[in-house]
């Protein structure tokens, strides 16, 4: 037999020795990027805690709802009647920021501050031209889920339970991932989040929209007993079947 | 010895009495095996010669189509597929083709998918100044009215979300609607958002080469015509002509009067025109009543109704006739007791084409169109001979002077004598009606008979027609044509009408139209628009102010719901006022002025607001004095010779129940709504009785191309020298030697939806024979390949299982209140549970099957069942000591409402309003003709149409289903049955879903969570009712017949490499549904994407909204009637009832309406023996035949509660299959209800 025939041919080039390492590194990198990509692209947006888009008008909830103590329902007027907690129309803003007619306001230092405020300029323009302001949506449940605000308020679920301390947020941000688990958590144990609610109105203490006070209440250890009692008296039985929200 | 036979559909064909009155099976396995898969191929279970099984209860055979009747092998293989055709079409081609398409699709999908996975920025555009009363998310309802073709209206409520109308409902206050609505009212909302309606789009539309339609904004149109109208003004209107569609709008009438007044254009000519008009009635009432009039019928007061070709139940011409008829048909609690008698009305129908009215008939005769007059004459003579001399004098005189009529082709004299007797017994409460395609003589005879029988003023009222409505359309269009040809018309204004398309064929109107120097057209982008010099696009009735009156003078304001979607469009009032140079051209002020004029001394503003709020004037003004029948006029009308029975074929021209005269042709919902009788979608066809077709030598093969699709052989139909090529569709129930065609299809210039749908029979309709014509020839069109017809008649079939129940009234009266438990000793079943069967239950399979056993016991004991239901150990609901069901309660001891539905087959006419209402409410998409042909239509509720035939002789029994027997096929009865998800308590779909996407809720609804569905379609496969619909493609989100990226490129590819349809293009590349089209969507219902199963939800969005509303009002329970499903709300005959089935607190303790219905002896469950426990129950149909016209074998059934025929020679008659028994073999029962028989049933 000739040497060529007897010897095992050197069929793999030398660089092949590095192949397993390269495959391992690339494979690990690939896995990581797939996982990262999956995480990034497939995380439902409704879970996106911390989503905080810039708004066309830098409306400051901390100032209005927090410092000035305005009731949420002053602007979100239909939250007790509708599926939606409506974004206020421009004329609601103009109730205060009228900029015209109110002599006292026009003579105040506040007006001096407001006059050139770019946000208020935009607001006044919108109002004068009849064009709506294009707010950017922060909280959204998917199209295949339906959430009625009205009946939740009626049951005694405060704004705080889903939206957090909006009165402390300069820019509104999503504080809870609004996944189905988040909903069901409360629907299975409604007592955790129920506060007294009287739709006959504002005599109730604390108001359901008083986020700070509600937070204190809900953090108290006896909340569970209190909430269960509310559920019992109101005969609340939050639905847990698919058709309650998905239709 | 007990013997049973199973026919090929698994139904028991023969039972024998064991003496107990209850039929029992010795081997229940045979009975229970309903599964077609267990019938092994190659082992026929019944000999083909007696393929048809006869219903045990009625002795009839029920079939959906000729293929079903014949039971061909192709048909079997077709129905056995879950989705009838081409469910796996990609694999039908070559493997290479499949790979090529998939490769291309993947590449395109990859390219298209990468960008933009994250959530797009959602904008919220709040109001600038929020209008009072508007709460975002809460709908407001406004009253409006929809003008109907030819006049009158429907009073509607429009549901609007933030100023966007999404749904129309009947106005409960309006006398025409009373809260109900027709198919067209339900579909009208889609027209509002029709993208093809605007001027911008109309420009791009071309139905055929060179027929582009360019819409001119109103202001431009006025400017361009100013000079012409100035000249006309100078000439006092000479040379000006108007051609307007008929309407009963007082504002338009006033405008017309002003335009034609002495100071304006007195010499102008005004023609009112409708393509499909009631010429016969107009001519007859002129002669008989002294002026044009309209016969208004009050069917609710009529005990005996005779229709001479009048199809009053076809929805689309208002709903009051359907409602009245249903009210007289059956009232709850009315029958079921022999002693109480019955007020159920009886309907006799003489007609040529099978219609919904014929389907409801207790006796129906299929006669040729020309012979209806002879029938009317024979009936009149029979009545006159039986009436006492004084009452009959006028009638007898008129008949004496009538032209001779021959009796060929009409039923025998016995028939007319029997009807006459019936009519005479119901004097003053009988009603005769003549069809709109019938000549004046028939209408005159009917008026004379109504007068002689004392019906005028009671069941029939004649209201005079003023102005436009009283004009003869035929005379109008003829006169206009003559005027044009004589050069007398220099300017023609066409309002709404489409004469270029619809004018009588022998007028050659299009040629004359082209000769007019200036033509201004207001309307759709249609044939006339294309032929006009100036075309102005018309507003939808929900976009502009208008007004309309009903026939008897109830005034409604047509209130707009939204600003016009397309700039430059105009309403008829606006156009006329603008052209006439009126000071008020805003229709709002025109209508207000009309109301002001009508207000008289009343406070105008108050009246105006009241009219708008209620949707009609508080007090209707009768349109004229009551009219009396003048028998001398009848004699004059009858002096004209009656239509003779011609040789050869006759053709009957019918308005399409869907698109009417073509004006609704661009409405996808109506195009896809299967015709109530033919079940054709997207097309019309030459309809002919199969026996006639065979006699003429045509093939009636419905599947000449492929066994999966229906095709019609192309025929050339010629009438008076003009011809049209169209497919032949064999149609049972048609009179022999008669061709029936639906008008309104085959539009040449039209929107995207209507393009290519159907054939234009206006092209052969002669002016002399608007309704029907003789001298028709039909011959095979040489060289034309068969035409695909998308029919749904065999879709979603229950494979012949015994689901239809009907009885004759006498039997129901005798046995209707039978209660099986009360009547007999408690019968124990192997599970020691008692059975309770009512009358309807005893008629069906349930009486032969062992008691129901819970198939899914394990799954029912889920968390909800444990927490919320109270059942005994057998799974039956608990009952208190009085036998009432103890309601299911929640943890707080509060009852949970349990939803259920009842569908009444006695009052359902099959009009299809429920289907379109459901489509509008639930965002159900249309899929297009090809997809329908594949069995992919998405309607959540369907209306199954069955023909039924009762063989009258042994010989017929043997031939039934073998040949196309003329007598049987012409006299086929019709029965309709709406079927939707029945929300089984033991739902077979739920146990097979791998992802729990379809599950039960505590209210008994079978929920469908779209977001969970992964599209395995197991549920649909396991559904015995075939009510689940699958989104094979993106029907809902992508534009219908829309464009897609790269279309130009694919068009360059060879055929084989192109995507088979736009559906195969990756969704991201396809054009999205236009925003304007998505505006119709109900915001409370998810729009489903592809790959998702869907089905009836019991309108759960309405239930949930009602629950929210009751909770906000501090109510614990939703009151009965507070929540209505969309189908129920629309149903003109109130056949559908929805509510809480355990509700015992409503109705003063009687319980909810649906609970009462379920307790009725007519109530039964579909396929009850499967123990699915449907929440939707059906109520059997009662027919009310005249005993004098019923044969002995049918009458014999009236004495037997079960209808099997007990002993005697009668026994074999209903069961039929005589000597053809064959034991089925290879039965495998897959469900655990199969048990060995035990003592009691042995």
Please provide a written account of the structure.
The complex is a heterodimer of chains A (247) and B (1242). Chain A is mainly α and 247 residues long. In chain A, 45% of the residues lie in helices and 1% in strands. Chain A has 13 helices and 1 strand, in the order H-H-H-H-H-H-H-H-E-H-H-H-H-H. In chain A, helix 5 (90-96) packs across helix 8. Helix content of chain B is 28%, strand content 15%. In chain B, helix 8 runs parallel beside helix 20, helix 12 packs antiparallel against helix 13 (389-400) and helix 12 packs parallel to helix 15. Chain B is globular and about 85 Å long. Chain B has 43 helices and 39 strands. Chains A and B meet through helix 5, strand 1 and helix 9 of A and strand 2 and helix 39 of B. Strand 1 (134-136) of chain A pairs antiparallel with strand 2 of chain B, so a sheet runs across the interface.
Features:
heterodimer, A: mainly alpha, 13 helices, B: 1242 residues, alpha/beta, six-stranded mixed beta barrel, five-stranded parallel sheet, disordered N terminus, disordered C terminus
Strand fraction band of chain A? under 5%
Low-confidence region ranges of chain B = 1-51, 84-92, 110-117, 334-341, 822-834, 853-870, 960-964, 1204-1242
Major sheet size, sense and barrel closure of chain B:
6 strands, mixed, barrel
- Based on CA atoms alone, the radius of gyration of chain A comes out at 28 Å
Give the oligomer, counting copies of the same chain as homo and different chains as hetero.
heterodimer
Q: Let me know the number of strands of chain A.
A: 1
Binned, the helix content of chain A reads 40-55%
Order of helices and strands of chain A: HHHHHHHHEHHHHH
């Amino acid at each position: 037999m000739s040497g060529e025939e007897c010897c095992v041919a050197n069929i793999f080039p030398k660089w092949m020795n590095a192949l397993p390492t390269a495959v391992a590194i690339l494979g690990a990198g690939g896995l990581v990027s797939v996982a990262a990509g999956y995480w990034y692209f497939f995380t439902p947006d409704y879970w996106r805690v911390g989503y905080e888009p810039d708004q066309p008008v830098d409306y400051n909830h901390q100032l209005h709802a927090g410092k000035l103590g305005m009731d949420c329902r002053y602007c979100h007027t239909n939250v007790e009647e509708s599926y939606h907690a409506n974004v206020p129309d421009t004329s609601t803003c103009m109730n205060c920021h009228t900029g015209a007619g109110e002599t006292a306001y026009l003579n105040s230092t506040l007006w001096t501050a407001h006059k050139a405020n770019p946000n208020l300029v935009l607001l006044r323009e919108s109002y004068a031209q009849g064009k709506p302001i294009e707010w950017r949506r922060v909280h959204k449940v998917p199209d295949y889920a339906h959430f009625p605000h009205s009946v939740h308020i009626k049951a005694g679920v405060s704004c705080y339970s889903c939206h957090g301390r909006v009165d402390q947020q300069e820019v509104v941000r999503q504080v809870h991932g609004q996944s189905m688990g988040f909903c069901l958590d409360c629907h299975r144990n409604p007592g955790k989040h129920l506060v007294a609610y009287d739709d006959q109105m504002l005599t109730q203490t604390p108001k359901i929209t008083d986020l700070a006070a509600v937070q204190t209440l809900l953090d108290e250890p006896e909340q569970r007993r209190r909430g269960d009692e509310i559920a019992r008296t109101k005969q609340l039985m939050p639905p847990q079947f698919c058709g309650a929200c998905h239709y | 010895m007990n013997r049973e036979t199973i026919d090929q559909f698994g139904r028991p064909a023969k039972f024998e009495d064991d003496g107990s009155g209850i039929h029992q099976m010795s081997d229940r396995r045979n009975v229970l095996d309903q599964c077609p898969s267990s019938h092994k191929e190659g082992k026929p279970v019944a000999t083909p010669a007696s393929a048809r099984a006869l219903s045990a209860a009625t002795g009839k055979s029920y079939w959906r189509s000729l293929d079903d009747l014949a039971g061909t092998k192709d048909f079997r293989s077709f129905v056995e597929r879950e989705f009838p055709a081409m469910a796996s079409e990609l694999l039908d081609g070559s493997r290479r083709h499949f790979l090529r398409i998939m490769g291309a699709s993947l590449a395109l999908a990859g390219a298209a998918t990468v960008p933009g996975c994250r959530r797009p920025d959602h904008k919220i555009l709040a109001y600038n100044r929020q209008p009072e009363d508007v709460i975002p998310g809460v709908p407001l309802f406004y009253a409006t009215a929809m003008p109907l073709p030819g006049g009158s209206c429907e009073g509607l409520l429009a549901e609007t979300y933030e100023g966007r109308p999404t749904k129309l409902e009947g106005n409960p206050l309006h006398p025409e609607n009373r809260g109900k609505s027709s198919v067209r009212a339900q579909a009208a909302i889609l027209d509002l958002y029709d993208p093809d309606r605007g001027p911008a789009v109309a420009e791009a539309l071309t139905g055929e080469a060179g027929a582009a339609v360019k819409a001119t904004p109103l202001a431009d149109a006025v400017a361009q015509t100013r000079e012409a109208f100035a000249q006309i003004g100078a000439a006092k209107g000479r040379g000006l002509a108007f051609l307007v569609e008929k309407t009963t709008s007082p504002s338009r009438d006033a405008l017309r009067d002003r335009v034609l007044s002495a100071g304006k254009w007195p010499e102008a000519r005004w023609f009112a025109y409708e393509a499909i008009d009631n010429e016969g009635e107009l001519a007859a009432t002129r002669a008989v009543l002294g002026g044009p009039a309209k016969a208004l019928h009050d069917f609710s007061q009529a005990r005996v109704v005779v229709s001479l070709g009048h199809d009053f139940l076809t929805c689309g011409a208002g709903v009051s006739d359907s409602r009245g008829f249903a009210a007289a048909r059956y009232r709850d609690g009315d029958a079921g007791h022999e002693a109480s008698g019955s007020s159920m009305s009886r309907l006799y129908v003489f007609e040529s084409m099978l219609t919904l009215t014929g389907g409801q008939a207790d006796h129906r005769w299929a006669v040729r169109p020309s012979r209806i007059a002879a029938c009317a004459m024979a009936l009149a003579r029979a009545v006159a001979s039986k009436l006492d001399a004084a009452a009959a004098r006028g009638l007898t005189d008129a008949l004496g002077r009538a032209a001779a009529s021959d009796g060929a082709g009409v039923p025998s004299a016995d028939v007319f004598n029997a009807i006459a007797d019936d009519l005479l017994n119901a004097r003053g409460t009988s009603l005769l009606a003549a069809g709109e395609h019938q000549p004046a003589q028939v209408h005159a005879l009917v008026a004379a008979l109504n007068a002689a029988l004392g019906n005028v003023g009671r069941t029939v009222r004649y209201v005079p027609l003023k102005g436009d409505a009283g004009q003869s359309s035929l005379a109008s269009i003829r006169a206009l044509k003559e005027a044009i040809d004589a050069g007398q018309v220099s300017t023609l204004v066409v309002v709404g009408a489409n004469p270029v398309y619809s004018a009588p064929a022998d007028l050659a109107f299009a040629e004359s139209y082209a000769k007019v120097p200036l033509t201004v057209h207001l309307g759709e982008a249609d044939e006339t628009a294309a032929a006009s010099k100036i075309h102005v696009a018309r507003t939808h009735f929900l976009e502009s102010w208008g007004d309309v009156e009903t026939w008897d003078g109830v005034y409604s304001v047509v209130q707009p719901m939204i600003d016009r979607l397309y700039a430059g469009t105009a309403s008829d009032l606006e156009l006329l006022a603008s052209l006439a140079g009126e000071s008020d051209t805003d229709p709002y002020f025109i209508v207000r002025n009309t109301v002001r004029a009508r207000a008289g001394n009343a406070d105008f503003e108050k009246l105006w607001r009241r009219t708008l709020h209620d949707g009609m004037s508080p007090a209707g003004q009768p349109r004229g004095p009551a009219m009396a029948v003048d028998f001398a006029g009848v004699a004059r009308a009858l002096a004209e010779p009656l239509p003779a029975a011609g040789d050869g074929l006759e053709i009957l021209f019918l308005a399409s129940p869907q698109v009417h005269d073509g004006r609704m042709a661009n409405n996808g919902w109506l195009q896809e709504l299967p015709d109530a009788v033919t079940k054709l979608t997207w097309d019309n066809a030459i309809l002919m009785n199969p026996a006639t077709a065979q006699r003429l030598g045509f093939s009636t093969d419905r599947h000449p191309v492929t066994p999966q699709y229906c095709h019609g052989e192309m025929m050339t139909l010629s009438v008076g020298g003009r011809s049209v090529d169209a497919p032949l569709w064999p149609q049972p129930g048609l009179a022999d030697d008669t061709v029936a065609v639906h008008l309104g299809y085959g539009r040449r210039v039209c929107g995207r939806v209507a393009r290519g749908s159907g054939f234009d029979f206006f092209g052969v309709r002669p002016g002399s024979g608007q309704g029907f014509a003789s001298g028709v020839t039909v011959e095979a069109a040489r060289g034309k390949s068969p035409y695909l017809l998308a029919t749904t008649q065999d879709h979603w079939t229950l494979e012949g299982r015994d689901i239809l129940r009907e009885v004759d009234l006498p039997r129901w009266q005798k046995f209707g209140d039978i209660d099986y438990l009360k009547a007999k000793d408690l019968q124990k079943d192997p599970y020691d549970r008692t059975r309770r069967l009512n009358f309807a239950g005893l008629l069906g399979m349930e009486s032969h099957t062992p008691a129901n056993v819970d198939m899914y016991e394990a799954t029912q004991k889920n968390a909800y069942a444990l927490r919320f239901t109270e059942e005994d150990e057998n799974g039956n609901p608990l009952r208190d000591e009085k036998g009432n069901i103890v309601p299911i309660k929640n943890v707080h001891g509060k009852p949970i409402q349990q939803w259920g539905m009842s569908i009444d087959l006695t009052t359902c006419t099959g009009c299809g309003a429920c289907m379109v209402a459901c489509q509008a409410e639930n965002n159900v998409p249309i899929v297009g003709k090809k997809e329908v042909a594949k069995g992919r239509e998405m309607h959540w509720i369907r209306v199954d149409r069955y023909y039924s035939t009762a063989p009258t002789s042994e010989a017929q029994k043997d031939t039934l289903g073998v040949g196309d027997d003329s007598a049987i096929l012409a006299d086929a009865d019709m029965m309709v049955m709406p079927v939707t998800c029945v929300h089984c308590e033991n739902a077979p779909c739920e146990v097979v879903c791998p992802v729990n996407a379809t599950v039960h809720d505590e209210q008994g609804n079978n929920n469908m969570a779209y977001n969970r569905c992964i599209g395995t379609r197991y549920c649909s496969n396991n559904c015995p009712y075939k009510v689940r619909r699958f989104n094979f493609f993106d029907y809902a989100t992508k534009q219908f017949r829309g464009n897609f990226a790269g279309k130009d490129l694919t068009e360059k590819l060879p055929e084989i490499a192109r995507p088979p349809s736009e559906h195969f293009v990756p969704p991201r590349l396809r054009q999205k549904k236009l925003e304007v089209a998505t505006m119709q969507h109900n915001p409370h219902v998810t729009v489903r994407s592809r790959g998702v199963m869907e089905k009836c939800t019991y309108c759960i969005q309405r239930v949930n909204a009602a629950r929210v509303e009751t909770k906000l009002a501090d109510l614990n329970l939703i009151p009965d009637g507070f929540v209505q499903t969309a189908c129920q709300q629309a149903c003109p005959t109130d056949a559908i009832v929805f509510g809480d089935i355990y509700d015992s607190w409503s109705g003063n303790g009687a319980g909810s309406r649906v609970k009462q219905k379920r307790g009725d002896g007519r109530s039964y469950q579909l396929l009850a023996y499967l123990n699915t426990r449907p929440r939707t129950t059906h109520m059997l149909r009662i027919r009310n035949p005249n005993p004098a016209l019923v044969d002995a074998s049918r009458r014999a059934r009236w004495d037997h509660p079960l209808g099997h025929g007990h002993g005697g020679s009668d026994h074999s008659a209903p069961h039929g299959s005589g000597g053809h028994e064959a034991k089925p073999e290879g039965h495998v029962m897959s469900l655990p209800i199969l048990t060995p028989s035990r003592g009691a049933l042995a």
